[in-house]
Amino acid sequence: SPPGLLLLTSFLLHVEEGHASPTRLVCDNRLIQKYIGEAKDMEKRAGHCQALPALSCPTVLPLVDFSLQQWKSKSNEIKRREILCDLALLVGAVAGAQGQVTQECGARQLSQLYRHANSFILLLQTFSWEAGPWEPGCSPRSMEQTHITGIFLTYRQLVQGKLRFFFHDLAKDLCK
Description:
The protein is mainly alpha-helical. The protein has a single domain (about 20-175), classed as Growth Hormone, Chain: A (Up-down Bundle), CATH 1.20.1250.10. The protein contains seven helices and two strands. It has a two-stranded antiparallel ribbon. Helix 1 (about 5-10) runs parallel beside helix 6, helix 3 (about 30-50) runs antiparallel to helix 6 and helix 5 (about 75-100) runs antiparallel to helix 6 (about 105-125). The model is unreliable at about 15-20 (pLDDT under 50). This is TPO protein. Belongs to the EPO/TPO family.
């Protein structure tokens, strides 16, 4: 089964009727560690692909570094929206790169990354503390990248950083 499907399934199995409560995903620290490990593995496998070409059309990636002090001062909803913006830009970058990479190894890794990032988008869309639908009209800080490995690095940093801290913050509220 694709890992993205596993993520979504494990989440859906722990949703209480009427109110999203993904307690297992946020309360079981081993799951986020598993996703960090998968992000590292994808990055390593992409790095081992032979002769990955530079992208002829640079892709735009979110800058996912952050100040822990500033992060702590944000509400969970603001954090969720920020991560969704980063993921939306990342998914767009992966899709753009997929159109430029014909080499099988690189294409396979990009396809897997695309599925993982989309699964996190679906998951994060189920959390919402404010009324109203999520609009992708956000503009996160970004940079242009011509190296495919940079896309995997950005994804790993996002999962290891903002997503891990977001789940940690949610755990404080959900896992009492």
